[in-house]
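Let us practice reading a record.
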Amino acid sequence: MHQLRRLDDGLDRGEGLTLSIIDRRPGLRVGLLLTPPMLWLGAAYLGALGALLITSLWTQNDFTGNIERVWTLENFKTLFTVEVYRTITVRTIGLAALVTAVDALLAFPIALYMAKIASPRAQRLLVIAVLMPLWASYLVKAYAWRGMFSADGPIEWVLQPFGLNTPGYGMVATTVTLAYLWLPYMILPVYAALERVPDSLFEASADLGAGSVHTLRRVVLPMAFPGFVAGSIFTFSLTMGDYIAVKIVGGTTQLLGNVVYDNQGAANNLPFAAAVATVPIVVMLGYLAAARRTGALESL
């Protein structure tokens, strides 16, 4: 019994010594905390990207359909030399930029009202209202917009008295649908950025004789800029990789996501699909580098 008590005392002292060492070394504590998720990130995410890049350097036998593990840049040559793929790439980047701009224009007044005008109770209700669309299924929302843009849908019914028709399925429907889907991802970062703006800045701007427009341009927008950058990363990247909404409301419109989906599915050309999939990755890496150079991410 006495030996067991001494053993327990020794274990307690050992645990106390270990905790003391961890407490005295914040770097060790952070390392122990981040090592497991970083290992998972390296194995699952970076490993998958590495496999994607390797696969893009292989080719497919046109006769048998089998993948030939021979190193070649033929897939990238096809991607950059065939006119249709260049057009699809430009269209995808342009659509991502357009959706981001539309969401920024819609998100700013909503976020400004939530952060600086609404009462605390109304703020909570508005945050819930912004988050509620995220609780619904992606497919439900996309098919709801398909019904809106159909030939006998609500948009056609509203526009008919003015001699107009629904734009139907295509780029307009795709832009509206994606802007709706990703709008909460823009509102929340802008709201968080504006909420940190002290009210005293507005009072100081008014005391110095600045009008509402001047205050908005010189005070509010610069303070909200980090939120716009953070939100644009979500909206831009999600649009670049989307292919489901385009299948539902895009009609004959083709984006990079559709090319990847079609080549790894019906065409069964996995190497070329992997090569196409590297384009959004490279574009997003460039976008993140540009966003970092603005310094906006450091101020979040």
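A brief commentary: The longest strand covers residues 59-60.
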